[in-house]
Design brief:
Elements lengths: L2 H10 L5 H26 L2 H28 L5 E4 L5 E5 L9 H11 L12 E7 L21 H12 L4 E7 L4 H17 L7 E4 L5 H10 L6 E7 L14 E7 L1 H13 L1
Parallel strand pairs: 2-3, 2-5, 3-4, 5-6
Antiparallel strand pairs: 1-7, 6-7
Helix pairs in contact: 6-7
Length: 271
Amino acid sequence: MKPSRFFLRPILDSKAVPLLFIIAVVLLNLLSNALYEGAKNRLSRPSLVAGAAVLLLVMIVVGYTVFHWIRKRFRPQLAIADIAPRRGLIVLVSQGHLDDIPATAAIRYHFRGEKNELTEPVLTHCWLVTSQRPPKEPELISQGPSNESVPSAWNNAQALKERYEGEVDMYIRTIDPENPENIFQVIEQIYAEAKQLSFEQENLVADFTGGTKMMSVGMVLACTPEDRDLEYMRPRRFLKGGHPDPNAGSDPKLVDLNFFLRSSKVMDEET
């Protein structure tokens, strides 16, 4: 906390030192009366004093409004940029048709590019974060036909592992999809594993697109350190119901959380 705020607290906070607060109120009242009498003597008429007070009040309100508009206008925004394929990828695997889920698109992009345009694969290590195997496969999801079942997240993780195994080192890590603390800890463990593999952290990125909202929260919180990169798959087109159009594809976007870290540092300095 700033020293000025500390010294002013006894006269601004009635709960801090009640006696000092009362004395300050009395003195401020005397000061306001003295200022009023001085203004009245200088301006001669009470109507002029009232007009000057109203004008001053309007100026304060306008100044306050302009200040907040400027602050909001130039507030640091979430920085989003394109990202080149990386050697390491952490993805949240969700249920659904395998070729439609974000994890599949992210792996495909980092492996050989969105359209398989790279001559050599880039991705070498991939961690698949998913829920545990369910007792039975899930029922219909909203975008499927009436009698169609869809693969579970666990089943999709197994399928992705089989698809790329031999070309990419695939690791499956199970989590509680509704427990952000558990997800945070698992992501931390993955970064520790990557470090043990002597994996360059600048070549590792975490994708928070798939999975439940709690899974995304846990991953984002784990990626707040400045040396951890975060991405999401931005759909190119949406269907009428608001769901991403799987036929249109998606593009990976790097999300820079440094704006949050800078804002936190500024707030810490101010307090």
